[in-house]
Amino acid sequence: MTKLVINPSKKQSKINKEIYGHFSEHLGRCIYEGIYVGEDSPIPNKNGMRTDVVEALKHIRIPVLRWPGGCFADEYHWKDGIGPKETRKKMINTHWGGVVEDNSFGTHEFFELCEQLGCEAYVNGNLGSGTVQEMSEWVEYITFEGVSPMADLRKKNGHEKPWKLDFFGVGNENWGCGGNMNPDFYANEYRRYQTYVRNYHPDHPIHKVCCGANVDDYEWTSEVLKTTHNHCLKELHGNMDGLSLHYYVHPEGWEIKGSATDFDDKVWYKSLNKALFMETLIERHGHIMDEYDPEKKIGMIVDEWGAWYTVEPGTNPGFLYQQNTMRDALIAGITLNIFNKHSDRVKMANLAQIVNVLQSVILTDGADMILTPTYHVFDMYKYHQDAMLVDSSVETETIGVEDEWQVPNLTESVSVAEDGAVHITLTNLSLDKDYEIRTILTDYQVNEVKGEIVHGEMHEMNTFETPDQVRVKEFNEVEKTAEGIKFIIPKCSVLHLEVR
Ligand code: AHR
């Protein structure tokens, strides 16, 4: 029997709801078709936003949405996306398929979407090819209430009141598609641009996110913090509320990536091993952040993460459309457990991308919509949002088929919600073994247990023909014991237990 020990009274850190955030980019069919279909569409919509997608996202309690990119952000000029739609400029989406972007989804539409979703707004500004003035004016347009050129323009365009802007990214991937800068150059640019990201509402300030590293580029983290910390920014926090990190799982590496649906046992374990690397990244980048910010006031913002495979055969290579299987359910479950466990430093994360792109929670085909295995994991994990992480540990053994890509058989995280319920999320990475779990809940009287599970064969997925192949099922086989509970977690599964 495998021992899982939970101490519900040993509270560790708050799991910010923003860890369960998402990312929408002008890429392929993410915004257009996936979210926005326009008011005249036969697809049911409210002010152009498709109703089925909005309802599905509300169900998983989407806390925050990042927009407009990604690489798209540093080529986006926000003024092209306001005013009457017929006069909005058309542009080439150079990064993603070279298609025409007609700017019919712009600032007003994004905030309308956030309002419908009831979520926070995370706008990513253009530092790579935009000016300081342009960035500053965008913030003024969005948030300033009084009389000013940009507030007046917003009013003229039909929105009297300002919107609430929760997070603002000062550039995206400026080490790459956002301008190919070196860390010192970017850090100086950050210092300049962020100065003009004005907080017009001290009661709900904008949280500024600085562009952080690609994967394990620890030098970027060090150099950016060194340069932003010294000289002008005496008090780093306030000028920088978050530092981003981007990490994707490419099973066969960046060049080949690998199929989303056609893989064997070896690739299964390799993919999960790569997902587990997120923990090393958080620890090592976190260690550097600790040097400059020992009180952990600056959040690590993992605003792009997920699995990135070869596009589905026959689809536009620039649209990055991929399917989603039980492997993605495990990648999501493992990664979210890691974020929960590091919620003292990780303050937000945004899965890439919300609809029709990389590890999406929703796929659409015209008027049809399906929910992916990853969606169902977010559904089961939603109870961790704003709950307190508590002390827990599980016994593990090492499994896998190749020496290089071994993984632990189980991962877990546990939180206590405001109403006192204990939420346990557990992943079983094994393809062939179920495990009996003896759970010890220290100083806790168990009265009631409810469970739900996502499991299946590793290739199982939802298609437009079989939309419910993978879904959340009730899990009732839990026994109360003198010390807590016991149950068997099946192979290849993600489990959520609610204990009261
Ligand atoms: O998610 C796809 C792309 O990956 C994003 O646009 C970019 O930021 C990253 O390189």
TrEMBL record:
<dbReference type="InterPro" id="IPR010720">
    <property type="entry name" value="Alpha-L-AF_C"/>
</dbReference>
<dbReference type="GO" id="GO:0046556">
    <property type="term" value="F:alpha-L-arabinofuranosidase activity"/>
</dbReference>
<comment type="similarity">
    <text>Belongs to the glycosyl hydrolase 51 family.</text>
</comment>
<keyword id="KW-0326">Glycosidase</keyword>
<dbReference type="InterPro" id="IPR013780">
    <property type="entry name" value="Glyco_hydro_b"/>
</dbReference>
<comment type="subunit">
    <text>Homohexamer; trimer of dimers.</text>
</comment>
<dbReference type="GO" id="GO:0000272">
    <property type="term" value="P:polysaccharide catabolic process"/>
</dbReference>
<dbReference type="InterPro" id="IPR055235">
    <property type="entry name" value="ASD1_cat"/>
</dbReference>
<feature type="domain" description="Alpha-L-arabinofuranosidase C-terminal">
    <location>
        <begin position="303"/>
        <end position="493"/>
    </location>
</feature>
<protein>
    <recommendedName>
        <fullName>non-reducing end alpha-L-arabinofuranosidase</fullName>
        <ecNumber>3.2.1.55</ecNumber>
    </recommendedName>
</protein>
<keyword id="KW-0378">Hydrolase</keyword>
<dbReference type="GO" id="GO:0046373">
    <property type="term" value="P:L-arabinose metabolic process"/>
</dbReference>
<dbReference type="Pfam" id="PF22848">
    <property type="entry name" value="ASD1_dom"/>
</dbReference>
<dbReference type="InterPro" id="IPR017853">
    <property type="entry name" value="GH"/>
</dbReference>
<keyword id="KW-0119">Carbohydrate metabolism</keyword>
<comment type="pathway">
    <text>Glycan metabolism.</text>
</comment>
<dbReference type="Pfam" id="PF06964">
    <property type="entry name" value="Alpha-L-AF_C"/>
</dbReference>
